[in-house]
Every structure is written in structure tokens, then in C-alpha cells.
Amino acid sequence: MERVRNPGPALPPYEPLMDGLDVEGKTRSTVVTMETPVVPPPRDHLAWSLCTTLYANVCCLGFLALVFSVKSRDRKVLGDYSGALSYGSTAKYLNITAHLINIFLIILVIALVASGTIVLANIFNHQQQHPDFIGPV
């Protein structure tokens, strides 16, 4: 009967040696570099605020957004990222509010122009059908 030898602990996988190196020539230490993840700076929405100020300045919300954007940029330059984030988010919400109000006003103007056109067309048609009609008696 043949005896089975205990192979002992499991050996780690091996790497073939490059030409010209022996076991003593291999480095035995491993260096692991840990990098901290780079966090992008908070956004200040300056370009958006500038466009809102120039093109959609309803109730001065665009100007207020521009002020908060500049404050956010100043805080970012000083290294106060929490203050920059706060001012930047305020500028963002002011820009969104100004744009929503502008969209509402544009829809309102379109509706008023359309209804005014319809009323004028009805008056013109009524005068064409009844030329003697001067007004209500």
C-alpha cells in the first residue's frame, strides 16, 4: 500500500522569473499607493445667472441669482466649499424660479394675444354682417 504524503500548506501562485534574474533579485516588498478621491468644487452657476439677468430678469430674480453666484465663486476661491455650495444652490434655485416665471408669462402673453385676436376677428365679422350697427343701445 502506498502512503500519501501530506503536501503541507498551500503554496502561493508563482511568477516566472525574467531572464537574468534569480530568486534573490526579485523585490520582496509591495508598495500600495492610496489616493484620496478628488472632489470637484461646487458649481457657482455664474454663466446661467448672467444669462438669466440679461434675458429673463423677472422681479430681479436674475440679478439676485447673479449676486449669489458671485458670492459662491468668492467662497470657492477662499476655500470655503460649504459656503460656496450654499450660495451656489441658492443661485440655482433663483435661476430655476426666474425661468419658470418667464415660461408662465410667455404662455400667458400667447394666450392673451390669441384670445384678443379671436375677439377682434369676431367684432370685425359682426361689423361686416351688420353694417348699420353702431353699438349697444
TrEMBL record:
Family membership: Belongs to the CD225/Dispanin family.
Name of the molecule in the record: Dispanin subfamily A member 2b-like
Coiled coil: none
Keywords: Membrane, Transmembrane, Transmembrane helix
Compartments where found: Membrane
Any one annotated GO CC term: plasma membrane
TM annotation in the entry: 46-68, 100-124
One Pfam family here: CD225
Entry keyword annotation includes Transmembrane: yes
